[in-house]
Amino acid sequence: MHCMPASGALLRQVLRTGLLECEELCEQDTGCRGFDYDTIRGLCRTFGICPSSARTNQNGCQWTIYDQPSESTESTTSLFEVNASSTTRRPQQAVAISDAVEVVSDTLIVAFVLLTSLVM
Q1: What is the pTM assigned to this prediction?
Q2: pLDDT 10s digit of each residue in the chain, 120 long?
Q3: Alpha-carbon torsion 21, 26, 30, 31, what sign?
Q4: Are 55 and 8 in contact (CB under 8 A)?
Q5: What is the pLDDT of residue 69?
Q6: I need a surface site. Which of 16, 93, 102, 120 has the fewest CB within 10 A?
Q7: Which H or E run includes 46?
Q8: Domain total for the chain?
């Protein structure tokens, strides 16, 4: 499964590297929300957003999507009141997700991206 820019994924970088290096690049990029990786060609694509509507199995199964765990825990009101947010830092580690798992809704992803862009 991989992210399709034509279907709403926002790619940040595309490069040829190893899986661990790809994960590290994403961790160092504050705008990176995850990456997909092609094991056959060693291709790494980091993305700022990859909603479920942009995830597909086209072009083979050599791709795997790794979502970045949320860096912070925001209160419900902070989605509407940016100055009232509380943040808890957690260690970052990419997590592979299978085709059958839906991590968060597209609406929540969009809200998180908008909130993140306002805070930064």
Answers
A1: 0.54
A2: 888 888 888 999 999 999 999 999 999 999 999 999 999 999 999 999 998 888 888 766 678 888 886 654 343 333 333 333 334 444 444 444 444 333 444 555 555 555 544 544
A3: positive
A4: no
A5: 67
A6: 120
A7: strand 43-49
A8: 1
Q: Which two tokens stand for residue 50?
A: 């990859």
pLDDT score recorded for residue 2: 82
Residue 2 token pair? 């991989």
Handedness of CA 93, 23, 28, 78 (dihedral sign): negative
Q: Output the six-digit token pair for 28.
A: 């160092």
Look at residue 83 and tell me if it is in a domain: no
| Helix (H) or strand (E) run with residue 71 in it | none
Unique residue bearing structure tokens 């997590």 = 95
Inter-residue contact 69 to 93 (CB < 8 Å): yes
3-state secondary structure of 23: helix
Q: Is residue 119 part of a domain?
A: no
Q: What is the CATH number of the domain that holds 13?
A: 3.50.4
Residue 58 belongs to a domain:
yes
